[in-house]
Amino acid sequence: MAAASGGGPRTTGVRVGPIDLAARVDEALAVQAVAFGLGAEEIEVRRHIVLRHLDHPHARALGALAPGDRLVGFVYGMPNERGHWWSTVVEPYLRATGSAHWLDDSFVVTELHVHPDFQNRGLGRALITTLTDAVPQPRSILSAIDTDSPARGLYRSLGYQDLARQVVFPSAPKPYAVMGAPLPLRRT
Fold first, then answer.
1. First and final C-alpha spacing in the chain
2. How far apart are CA 63 and CA 14, in angstroms?
3. What are 2-11's pLDDT values in tens digits?
4. Pairing of strands 60-66, 161-167
5. What's the number of CA atoms in the CB half-sphere (13 Å) around residue 88?
6. What does each C-alpha distance from 160 to 36, 56, 117, 119, 124 come to in angstroms?
7. Given 90, 99, 113, 155, which is the most exposed site by the fewest CB atoms within 10 A?
């Protein structure tokens, strides 16, 4: 596993590289639970979603591994397809803002999470830039809770812009923003 691109993480001994996310799904979801404040029931639902996503032939996953092979962060995504559930939910919102074309020829960053003990050290940046640097699509899209947060600040610093806001996903307690950026992502 090589050092991370995009400047590298500022965490001694943590390396970013490909992982078998299906084999490490429970570790990844434990990170997501702490980072995102999810309960056991939500984690079980997300487990099935992640495993289904990983069946996509072009899904890619990276992990941030601390000494002892401890997973402290992960990212995964895949080329967008308009028939995917996420696309069908966000498409009307994007159409309303004149941004529906972003659903075509784009790579979706599906999940990006870093354990709180390892946040603000460049790992999220290293994970997302390393992931998107290796894809052939000319742009990337993602969704994030529609609030001013460190995650949205990171995405903006990489060149992501709001394409639609106040996007409501079924059963999600908070609205989301859909963001898009040309690839490669901007470096600071």
1. 24
2. 10
3. 344 444 566 6
4. unpaired
5. 4
6. 21, 24, 25, 20, 14
7. 99
For residues 81, 83, 84, 85, the Cα torsion angle rounded to the nearest 10 degrees is 150
Residue 32 has which token pair? 């997501």
What confidence category does residue 172 fall into, taking pLDDT thresholds of 50, 70 and 90?
A: confident
Cα(103)–Cα(163) distance, rounded to whole angstroms? 11
Q: Name the β-bridge partners of 113.
A: 74
d(CA 27, CA 25): 5
Q: Which of 180, 187, 99 is nearest to 139 (CA)?
A: 180
Question: What is the structure's pLDDT at 4?
Answer: 42
Answer yes or no: are the C-beta atoms of 90 and 76 closer than 8 Å: no
152/146 Cα distance (integer angstroms) = 8
CA torsion 28→49→36→154, rounded to 10°? 90
Per-residue pLDDT at 115 exceeds 60: yes
